[in-house]
Amino acid sequence: MHCQGKDTIVTKSSLDVENRNLFVCDPESIKIYKELPIGVLLTDKLRYIQYCNPAFTRITGFTIEDIHGSFMDDVFCCDPHNENTDPDAKVHAIENDQIFTCKWNTKLNIEKDIRCKKVDVQLSGSNQNLVAWYVEDISFSFENKEDFSVDTDENNSNIILHRKLEIERVISFISSALVAPENLDDLIVESLGKTGNLCGACRAYLFRVDDKNVNMSNTHEWCEEGVESQKDNLQDLPQDMFPWWMGKIERGEIIHIKEVAKMPPEASAEKEILEMQDITSLLVLPVYVNGTVNGFIGLDNVNATGKWSMEDVTVLGAVANIIGSAIGQKEVQDKLNERNRKLIKAYEELKSMEIMKYEFISNLSHELRTPLNSILGYSEILVDEQFGSLNQKQKKSVNSIFNSSRKLGTLIDSLLYMASVLAGKTCYQFDPVQMENIIDNALNHHEFEATKRKISLLKKINGHLPIIYGDVYFLPQLMYKLVDNALKFTPENGSVEILANEVDDGVHIEIKDTGIGIPLCELEKIFDAFYQIDGSSTRRYGGNGLGLHIAKKVVDAHNGRIWIESTEGKGSSVHIFLPTDPKGRRSKERSCYSIPDGLV
C-alpha cells in the first residue's frame, strides 16, 4: 500500500517548520525508549511525529531528522487491518492499548508488514500527553507464513518488551560465547538449552552429516527436565533413509510440523522415527558450515501439538547461523593447527637430520685432520730440507704433497666450521684485534702461490687502521678465504689487491682482483652455502662453494656487512665493513650462534 503512488516523498506536515520546536522531547524523558530492542515512535495526539528510537530506524530506515514534525499517516501510510477492526477504519480510530497489523512504507519505499501497539503516555516532568506506537517488523521471506503463529493476543506491552529483551539477551550470549571458545561442544549444548527454554521446546538438538555426506548423527542435544535423551539412538543414520526430510534440508527449506501424526505419506519414514521418540511437533532449520549445508538444528515438543511462531523461526535461524559460523571457524582453525603441527614435526625431523649430518661431518673432519697434520708437518720438514738436500725432482714432489695437504686442510677447516654453525656450536670470542696485522698475515700466507702463478699481490692502506673488537681465530680465517678465493679465479699475470681504510666507527676492506668476474644474475646467490656458478667453474677452478658463505657468516657475527661488485670478464671486488665495537661495548664477550633457520 502506498499513500500517493510509488513515488511518494515524505513532505513536511501541515505544521510550519517554525512550530517544530514544539515537538522537542526531553532527553531524560525518552531515555527509556532509546535502549528498547522494539521500535518506538512518539507522536502527539494529532499524530505529528516528535521522536523515534534506534530500533525504529532499523525497521523503517527513517531517522528522527527525516520525519520530525511530519504527519504519521503521510509518512508511513499506516492504515490498519485487523480481524477485530473494520477494514475501513483509520489509525485515528485505534483505541489505546490496541494491537493491530498494517503495512508501512520504509524510507526505501518498500512495504513492510508491521505489528503495532498504540499506548497513551505522559513523559515524566511534562504535562504533554503523547502516543507511543510500539512497532515490530513481522515481514518474513519464506513461504506459507500462515503456518506460523503470531501472538496478537498480548494485552500488555510489558510482556512484549520482556520477550524482546529476553531474545536479545539470549542471542547476545550465544554470539559472544561462540567467538573462539575453548570448548565449543559444551557451549553449543548450552546455547541449545537457552534457545529451547526461550522458544518453549522440550528438546533442542544439532545434527551434522559426515565427511562423505552419507550418514548423519545427533552431535549435540539439550533436553528439558523429565524428557528422555535420544542422542545415543540417533548416530550414523543413513541420509537416504529420510529422503523427504533431507531433501528439504538440502534445498534450504524450513521444516515446520505442527502435528507429527498428520505428516504426509511421503514422509512415512520420518514420521515413524519421530513417533518412536514421542515427538508431537517440531521446527527444523538447515545449518550451513562454510557456505555448505552441513546438517540441521531443531526444536521439538513431546507434550503438545501446535504451531511455532515466526519469532521462534527467527531465533532458531539466528542460532543456526551463529553455530554454523563457529563450527566453520573451528574446522578451519583445526586444519591450520594440524598443518602447523605437521610442519613443526617435519621441521624438527629435518633439523635433527641436519644436526646428525653435520655432527658426522665434524667427527669425520676431526678424524681426517689428525693424519693430515702429520703429513703437513713432515712434508714441511722435507721442503725445508731439514733431513738433507733434495734434487729438483724430489723438491717438486714434496712441494706437491705439501700444497695439496694445505688445500685439503682448508677444506677440512671449512667443513668443521659449517658443522659447528649448523650444530649450534659456533662461538665467537671478541678481543682487541689489529686488522692490519691480519691483512699482512693473509698476504704472507698466499705469497708463495701468488709468486708461482705470476700474480701481483698488493696492499694499500690509507692512514692508520683502528683496533677493532673481533674474534682472533675467525677474522684471520675470513681474510685467508677471501684472498684465496681472489687468487683462485685470477689468471696468470693478473693482480689481487687489498685496500683498507678507516670509516665511520669501523674499517672498510676491499679485496680486488682482475679475475673472471661474476655474472650479474648470480650475485644474489653468491653467498649461499655450496653454491657455485656452474659445473665448468668447479672443474677448472676447484672449490666447494663454502668460502663466501663462511665469510658472510663471520662478518654477520661481527655485526658487519659484506657485498660484492663485479664485472664479468674484468674482475670482482669483495667489500667488508667491520665495526670497531660489534657489540656496542668494549669488553670481552663470548657469542654463540644456534642453527640458522634458513639453512635447515
What topology does this entry show?
Layout lengths: L26 H8 L4 E5 L5 E4 L1 H7 L3 H4 L4 H5 L3 E2 L17 E7 L5 E12 L6 E9 L19 H21 L6 H16 L3 E7 L5 E9 L13 E2 L4 H8 L4 E3 L10 H9 L4 E9 L2 E10 L8 H74 L8 H31 L3 E9 H18 L3 E7 L4 E5 L2 H15 L6 E9 L2 E8 L21 H7 L5 H11 L3 E7 L3 E9 L9 E5 L7
Parallel strand pairs: 14-16
Antiparallel strand pairs: 1-2, 1-6, 3-4, 4-5, 5-6, 7-8, 7-12, 8-9, 10-11, 11-12, 13-15, 13-20, 16-17, 17-19, 18-19
Helix pairs in contact: 5-6, 5-9, 6-9, 9-10, 11-12, 12-14
Structure write-up:
It is a single chain. The protein is α+β, with helices and mostly antiparallel strands and 600 residues long. The chain has three domains: 17-145, Beta-Lactamase, CATH 3.30.450.20; 166-335, GAF domain (Beta-Lactamase, 2-Layer Sandwich); 424-599, Histidine kinase-like ATPase, C-terminal domain (Heat Shock Protein 90), CATH 3.30.565.10. 39% of the residues lie in helices and 23% in strands. The protein has 14 helices and 20 strands. The strands form four sheets. A six-stranded antiparallel β-sheet has the order 2-1-6-5-4-3. Strands 9-8-7-12-11-10 form a six-stranded antiparallel β-sheet, sandwiched between helices. Strands 14-16-17-19-18 form a five-stranded mixed β-sheet, covered by helices on one side. The longest helix is centred in the middle third of the chain and has 74 residues, at 310-383. 28% of the residues are buried.
